[in-house]
Amino acid sequence: MLNFIFALATFADMPLVSPVFGDHMVIQRDKTDAIWGWTKPGASVQITIATEGTDGLNTNTTLFGATADTSGKWIAKFKAPKVGGPYRITVKGDQTVELHDVLVGDVWVCSGQSNMEMGIMQAKDAQKEIADSANYPNIRLYAVPKVPSLTPQATALGEWLNCTPQNIVKGGWGGFSAVAYYFGRKLNQDLKVPIGLVHTSWGGTPAEAWTSAEGIAPVKDFDNQAKAVIDMARPGAPHTADMIEKWANDVNGDLSKPDLDDSMWSDVKLPARFGQLSLNGFRGEVWFRKTIELPSPLPAGEAQLTTGSNDGIDLNYVNGVRTDFGSSVLNWRNKPVPPGILHPGKNVVAIRFVGMSPNAGFTFPGIDGFNLRIGGVRYSLLGDWKMTRGFDLKDAPKMPALVEDNPNWPTTLYNGMINPLLPMGIKGAIWYQGESNVGRGEQYSRLLPAMITDWRKAFGQGDFPFFVVQLANFGGQQASPGNSGWAELREAQTIATTRVKNAGLAVTVDIGEARDIHPKNKQEVGRRLALAALHTAYNTSGEYSGPTFKSATPQGQSIKVTFDHANGLTLRQAKTSGFAVAGADGKFVWADATVQGNSIILAGPGVNEPLYVRYAWDDDPVVTLFNGDGLPAVPFRTK
What we know:
By secondary structure, the chain is an alpha+beta fold. The protein has three domains: 12-216 and 411-536, SGNH hydrolase (Rossmann fold, 3-Layer(aba) Sandwich), CATH 3.40.50.1110; 240-395, Galactose-binding domain-like (Jelly Rolls, Sandwich), CATH 2.60.120; 548-637, no CATH class. Strands 1, 3, 4, 6, 7, 8, 9, 10, 24, 25 and 26 form an eleven-stranded mixed β-sheet that branches. A six-stranded antiparallel β-sheet has the order 11-23-12-19-15-16, covered by helices on one side. A four-stranded antiparallel β-sheet has the order 18-13-21-22, with no helix packed on it. Strand 25 (466-469), helix 9 and strand 26 (503-506) form a beta-alpha-beta unit. The two termini are 36 Å apart.
């Protein structure tokens, strides 16, 4: 049994109203909602919800209150007024906070990794779609800042925005999440109610990072990692950077000091990956040093060293003093240089880099991401550096756990990017993630239901609807039927949505891009998610799924596969049917396919008695099977 640590801030450090509430927000209709904040322990707050522009004394006014607990937190439960608005929410305590232009409608949490994070500017038809966003004033946008945390955090410093061409391009990777926006747009068009979209995602992160310590415990696979997070959060626990530095120093010493003689080191150009530095396949420590000349007097202002986003573990030093630490491509290395470290004349920047993969190195310095800045003056670090190889990982003792500030570790993103939202009133959630869990399909089939169950318990609103984007096609196609990590992860996503109530799947295996893990057609992704939501969350009629496997019946030299959601079943032309069959020996071959009503008849050369079937079972499969609504069949296997 794990013991859980929760971070408690004092009321004096906290806002009267949590920043997840603000002007232009949407509050959830037809449910018991909550609003919360902090004041003096035992103090009371009074909340008024009134039609915007009134004196708060009309018939559309809701009055309620709450009392702060011993930690200073107050939480008020209430029933939202009628759909629409705008409303004004007034909270009176030791101060008064007013929230304006508040709408009542449906709120959706939109989460995952980079394909959910990908902004509208990066997606298909960007300029046209950005301009069109002005037509949806009742869609409201909230983006949770990227904050990994060892302990559950109470607040997220986001901001609710009206959906406008100016606001939808703000922040993130190309603006607001394209998938979330297109999903919300379809719901707003069909339902004619305000839609609030709470976007909380981070590219490259695994599902376990989005699950709480309590929620992940039943999975068992992550006990050691979850315990490491808890241990690191204990008072007095050493920082990860301190542990890594000590570990590396014990192996190979400290080569950061400015008076060290590096004249015999190799000359290299940075930024670069290891493969560009004659370090192909090397996994271990590499030191880099650069001497820069600074003027007298030094420019006024704070100093900051920026070395970008790097694939590996690195510690940055200025004149022998550590200034930064990064353990992931998701950490941007740009910490301040402490006062008194820099001086006129020669200064030495050193980087201790521990490469963990064959593709390690400096990956994304960006247009302004490799420099030393002092005040408004920037000194470029591009170009000539000195380099020497340190230890090989295979010869070194076991590395300390890379926990702190690491968004890839179990619980860290739940703590920093989900916990601040609790217990906000929501309609449901959409989820586009899985790429970072490829290769762990069976585990994912247990992990994702655990995460969904965890969120539902935490939000305290029952089995709210939860919809999953199945991974798109990506990579190369196999010449012959074989195994596929991506197909197994898609299967795990399908399994997960059948193991929990009120869940659904948006299949995208036909709209990916073989050479781009971030396909551009986010409009169709959002539309298919909305179709699933309209059916499950709103009980509307109409098809919402592509064909799904129902049964397989051997018929001598052929096998009959029957499908649900098969009205208008069609096979599109391609180099193969996308189906493979196997006999008792389990050796699959591509199959010929013929439509027969809501079934497909399959036969494969050399398979006299087919017993097993696979469809679209590849990283980048051939996709041929659709129903009359143009929705693709869900990939499957019977063995």
